[in-house]
Amino acid sequence: MGETLLDALHRLQEIELKLAEIRGKREVKIRLIESRKRKEKQAEEKLLTNERLLRERQMRLDSLSLDVASREESIQKHREALNKAKTNKEYAGILAAMNTEKADAAKIETAVLEFMEEIQTLKDSTGKAEEDKRKLAEDVRAAEKLLEEYDLQRREELANLQADRDSCAEAIPPTTLASFTRIAQSLEGEAMATVIKLYPKRDEYMCAGCNMTISLEIVNALRSRDEVQQCGNCGRILFYDSSTVERK
Ligand SMILES: [Zn+2]
Fold first, then answer.
1. For residue 138, how far is its CA from the centre of ligand 1 (angstroms)?
2. Which of 98, 97, 111 is nearest to 68 (CA)?
3. Helix axes 5-84, 174-186, angle to 10 degrees
């Protein structure tokens, strides 16, 4: 006797579960890469913001330094004018203007010092952000390596499983295969569930996938015909394994 449709589906199910396990493990590794990439991107953004602030502050500092220089030049001119003043009134006027200029220059110098301090802080934090970014890039690389190694380890097994799945699928009618695939996709590869007998001496059964009762009508159909029967609750294709069900 050849393989029945339900046996073929059951075999396909075993293959699908192994494939789903491999996919699941890959998925965990992919998520690790993604989360590390997000952290790396945040560090990169922080670095870019720092660099932009640093350029802005540096430009302000340059223009303030020019301002200080031109005010010093102007103070020097006032000083020379003071020596040439002809009247007391003229002298007092020049002195007053020179003092205003000196007060302004002092304010700007204070601002220059503040900017210099801020620039130093930004430089320190930029250095740290560069270091963070470098470390996080290494973390991303390490996570990518884990996935590469995993793929390499499971490559042969995966190819074999895919070949098995293809040959197994050939024995199954396209519409049945399509619904199997649809259910498998929505239930992480678990398209089938075995039927469990609840009590040794009573005809009460349940679906091992969702633990809901299965009618005797469906169980009888499974026992007598090689046809697809789905669980009315979870939709899994039911598999009746007489060697395990009837042992209970
Ligand atoms: Zn079910």
1. 46
2. 111
3. 40
Q: What is the DSSP letter of 187?
A: T
The whole-angstrom separation of Cα 54 and Cα 45 is 14
For residue 96, the SS3 value is helix
Ligand 1 mean position, distance from CA 192 (Å): 9
Q: Find out whether 238 and 222 touch, Cβ atoms under 8 Å.
A: yes
Neighbours of ion ligand 1 (CB under 5 A): 207, 209-210, 231, 233-234
Q: Which residues of the chain have pLDDT under 70?
A: 1, 244-248
3 state DSSP class of 238: strand
In the reported structure, the alpha carbon of residue 208 is separated from the centroid of ligand 1 by a whole-number distance in angstroms of: 7
What token pair was written down for 202?
């009573």
Distance from Cα 1 to the centre of ligand 1, integer Å: 29
Q: How far is the CA of 232 from the centre of ligand 1 (A)?
A: 7
168 in Cβ contact with 11 (< 8 Å)? yes
CA of 136 to the centre of ligand 1 (A): 45
pLDDT confidence of residue 248 = 46
Quick one: pLDDT at residue 151? Answer: 97
The CATH code of domain 5-170 reads 1.10.287.1490
| Cα 165 to ligand 1 centre (Å) | 24
User: What token pair was written down for 146?
Assistant: 């884990």
Among the listed residues 185, 217, 240, the one whose alpha carbon sits nearest the alpha carbon of residue 23: 185
Question: Residue 59 carries which side chain, given as an amino acid letter?
Answer: M
Q: How far is CA 221 from the centre of its chain?
A: 48
Domain boundaries, the chain: 5-170, 191-245
Task: Tell me phi and psi for residue 159, to 5 degrees.
Answer: -60, -40
